[in-house]
Amino acid sequence: MAVGAQVSSWPLKARIRLHGTPNVDVRLELPPGITVLFGPSGAGKTTVLDCLAGLRTPDEGEISSGDKVLYSSQRRIDVPPQRRHAGYVLQDLGLFPHLTAAQNVEYGLSGSDSRVRRQRAMEWLERFRVQHVAGRKANLLSGGEAQRVALARALARGPEFLLLDEPLTALDLPTKARLMEDLVAWNRENPIPVLYVTHDRSEVYSVAERVLVISAGRIVASGRPDKVFDSPQQLAVAHATGYENILDAVVIAHHADVGTMTCRIGPELSLECPLGPHPVGARLRVAIRAGDILLARERPNAISARNILRATITRLERRDMLVIARVRTGETELEAHITPGAVQSLELAAGVSVWLVLKTHSCHALRD
Amino acid sequence: MTTALLVSLKLAAIVSAALLVIGLPIAYWIAFTKRRWRFLVEAAVGLPIVLPPTVLGFYLLVALGPRSPLGAAWIRWTGDPLAFSFTGLVLGSIIYSLPFAVQPFAASFAGVDRNLLAASATLGASRWRTFWRVVVPLSLPGLITGIALSFAHTLGEFGVVLMIGGNIPGATQTISIAIYDEVQALNYAAANQAALILLVLSFVLLTCVYGLNRRWSGWPWR
After folding, report:
1. Which long-range contacts (C-beta less than 8 Å, at least 24 apart) are formed by A180-187?
2. Ordered domains of chain B (ranges, CATH)
3. What are the tens digits of pLDDT across the range A204-233?
């Protein structure tokens, strides 16, 4: 979905400046749908959510939901959190431990008839498939149940926008996937702006229509997840999105006819990168995902990839279904991710020499 | 002796009930204020812990006496003097036992996870509702401790009571003063009897408090 193509009934807009660690200076414009706020820890993600919810006051800025101004430093408006109509699922959920799951959901519901409130709470628990724990104290819920109850509690009030702070961090993969499906399905029926904070790349692709990358208190990139993550333009984005290999480089030649440029990494190492607006002689960085590097035992020929480098494996490290291979080519050490199966069939081990294969488009030239 | 015990129990009951009402807002303010001079209020509330009871009693006597503005106003209003009366005793005891209620209250309020308060606010709950529905239930052990301590402390107080209450049997003579009187009269058997009652009462009370708190701390959310 193109950003702004759908005119929102109540888009969330914010300009927030706040002194702190880090200093936060962001502008956001959230259409209905799920927008991920992605960045490493300490980048200011929770601070942004707290400001939107009214739990922290920015030093300067403006926040509005639809035509309602929630905060304006200039006009001295600061609507308290109670009247912002925000749904906020805090990082540690903030479920009331002395109340049951149903009482937690009821807590936020208005209306004087307790039977009606109880029934609505049950409907929400059912909707998030946790009606079976309605009578259980919140501190006795499992991680997945607690997440669902917290979501139900935030949504039951019919918020005008929803803030989720790493809502799925503690969950195992299947639980995570089901909850994300439920969230996306709910949002399709209730198109309100959702700001979803995470530092987990895999969550971004599953839920987000748009991603904002935050680094050291500033938004450094925004757009569709595949665009932002798969072709970073700036160093900060590559850092924030977890590129494993970021190398210093100098542009030594342009090949305008084939759309590439040659970047020298070290005395014996040059890489063909997509042609960019960098003059010959420019110093820049080249970012390469570990998963984009192929390993071969023999030099491949008749292959479209432009970068084929001789290298030696210095270390192999197994992590779950992934093997992290450290390889040295010339003076440069790179990280490559391969499967345990590949290690077996290629008989890879420390000290073995290999060929690294890198597509031109896997080498991203970055400006600072 | 029974009369003195009844005066003591009545005094302790009224004072701890009053401290629940007065102590909650003071403790709330201490636990949640962002004012820089909070430490001044904390120090003032804590003063009776370190001050000799005679010093506190002396100033209270001056403050409640018929020549003080408060004492004079009280006489104009009720016709009775405040010093050397049961009412004066209640006032003095409230001040004397204030820290024993406020400090456990404030400590348990401050111990409530701030994220729960944030969650409550985003769910639309006012501070009042958050206080009664979240802060108080999660602070129950501290509230019980505070009430029990101020009850026990009032029951056993001596110096302040003697200074501002005098020693009027049936009105301001508490059990601890009665014990002192019996010892002065070399009536050790009666003193022993009263002392034993006070000892057992205090022990039972503290056992209940610690027993209750142990059960509470056994709940998984503590």
Report:
1. A180/A206, A180/A207, A182/A128, A182/A129, A182/A148, A183/A34, A183/A151, A183/A207, A184/A34, A186/A127, A186/A155, A187/A32, A187/A33, A187/A34
2. 2-31+38-216 (1.10.3720.10)
3. 888 888 999 998 899 988 888 888 887 788
